[in-house]
Amino acid sequence: MLKYGKKYIDIGKDYYEKEYQERVRRNLEKRAAALNFKLVPNDPAG
């Protein structure tokens, strides 16, 4: 903001929460792959 003179835009808590969840999922997939596991989505309807 200071360096380039741009205005601050609050993108909100939901954006950060979504990004955090995605990062956790990617890291978990990497850890599972290192242990020769594969993550399978859980079907909440089934």
* Amount of beta strand: under 5%
Largest sheet report? none
Order of helices and strands: H
Q: Whole-Å distance between the termini?
A: 48 Å
Number of domains: 1
The chain-level structural class is mainly alpha
Indicate the low-confidence ranges by residue numbers.
Answer: none
What's the gyration radius in Å?
17 Å
Mean pLDDT: 91
Approximate helicity band: 40-55%
Number of E strands: 0
Which geometry do the CA atoms define? elongated
Tell me the number of helical segments per DSSP (H or I, 4 or more residues long). Answer: 1
Verbal overview:
There is one protein chain. By secondary structure, the chain is mainly alpha-helical. The protein has one domain. It is 48% helix and 0% strand. The chain is built from 1 helix and no strands. It has one helix at residues 13-34. The longest helix has 22 residues, at 13-34. The termini are far apart. The model has no long low-confidence stretch (mean pLDDT 91).
Concise synopsis of the structure shown:
The chain has 46 residues and is an all-alpha fold. Helix content is 48%, strand content 0%.
From the structure above, extract its key features.
46 residues; mainly alpha; 1 helix; 0% strand
Q: Layout of SSEs?
A:
Elements: H1 13-34
